[in-house]
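Can't paste images in this forum, so I'm doing it all in text. The chain is below; anyone willing to post the predicted structure tokens underneath?
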Amino acid sequence: MKLKLSVLSIMVTSLLAGCQLTGPDHEDTALSDNRTTCEIAHTDINDQADCELANEGVIEVMHPSEEVEVDLDQTLDDVEPGIVSDVWRRASNQFQFDIPDNERIAIQRDWYLKHPAYMERVSKRAKPFIHYIVQQIEEREMPLELALLPIVESAFDPFAYSHGRAAGMWQFIPGTASRFGIQQTWWYDGRRDVVASTDAALDYLTYLNDMFDGDWLHALAAYNSGEGRVGKAIKRNEEAGKSTDFWSLDLPKETRAYVPKLLALADILKNQNDYEFEWPEVENEPVITTVDIGSQVDLAFAAQLADMDLKSLHALNPGFNRWATDPEGPHRLVLPLDKADSFSEALENVEQNDRLNWVRHKVKSGDSLLKIAKEYHTTVDVIKSVNEMKDNMIRVGEHIMVPVALKKLDAYSLSEDQRLVNTQNQKRGSYQLTHEVKSGDTLWDISRKYNVNTRSLAKWNGMAPTDPLMPGKNLVIWVNEANDEQKRDAIMRTLTYTVKSGDSLARIAQKFNLRTSDITKWNKLNPDKYLQPGQKLTLHVDVTRLKNVG
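Text version of the structure:
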């Protein structure tokens, strides 16, 4: 079977909640966000008020819409008698939760029933991962309704990102991720790694269930809004002599909708025949497996060994931020089941040093390890490790070995940098301007300067409105009107060029219609020194010429 796995392209507003706290300005913007959700539902909506009611209070989640075809062809054995052929049915046969007959669940159920196309898209994203997730939940003897939680959290999108810096299929914020052992480095973010994040999410849910004395609805509410908030709500009701069940608690609007969404989905799946709803089937067979790789490897090289295209391999391994796996691990890749053995056999015949491409860099005046690391898109620690350096001291004229990407960086289209580039370059207006963040800048200040919406400004730059701004970061601003200076700036783009064998400053300058003196200045180069293959150059290019450059 050939599956399509949705990965990053553009950001849209989702009806989905996330595992994070509701921001202080959320309620003021909820109505407009939900109206957008209704508009993108790809179905006629006769009752706008009903749609908005179903999505009242939910947090905006940014997630992809482009579909990447992941080749998971394999020959499946005939299903044994008595074995359920659909993994969703396998899960629903083990559901445990009671579904109350109340309006809050009915509102959510009606929304899903009216939008079958939404479940089609979600199920396509889930196909590579749902069997694995169901299996993990079964092994822990946890309620199988939890297999539906990634639908509520992220629409089964490992690249999803939302308010509070929540990321991944299970929508972990950085602090909670760290608490439950999820690694987050420059190279790797385990919140997007389906294996690591699933393990951590089930650990967290187990912890919450124990904290709330086995009450799964309290645990789910706490997963969404924090155990402290739910605990305080229970205490308030106890002191007031009120019931402490989930339905009686005073919780944020998002959380009040969050648990009913999960229960509504469970009800629909369990009773789809009664509701005349066709829940898309997924074969009850494993389609992926993990392979031990032992050390860092270039993802492009790994894709070649696996006989896969780079984007497909990266889509199955969304935790890796850059062009290679993390040198400190995890040293594993998720691969299609039918490709794992041949990949492992091929990798065994490759020396560790051959798993990466290398450049021999001659240290120039003004070089530092940090400057070199940025130039080649790696880290100081990696350079020090491969060159067995005890400190950061380097000397002019000496040579150091630096790992570099096998392909041009834009070929790694699902890396963190390229996902941001794709997001920022999605056309949102007539002119694209760039603002370099200065110390003290806020999104509010910048939005006022350019007369744009704060929430839009954040979305254009792959951020949530509450994310911190770092000085030196370049933000993209889309406007429909601009002065002459802004119009000139709008046609310029900054790109990273990887030096190829035989390249010279003159040849690169001619290719991009630039002056060699400008390239030298932008990159602080010595014009009398040869360029090294693999070296990265920053170029500022007229965007109208980019389509003419090979």
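Confidence is low (pLDDT under 50) at residues 1-47. The first helix runs from residue 26 to 39.
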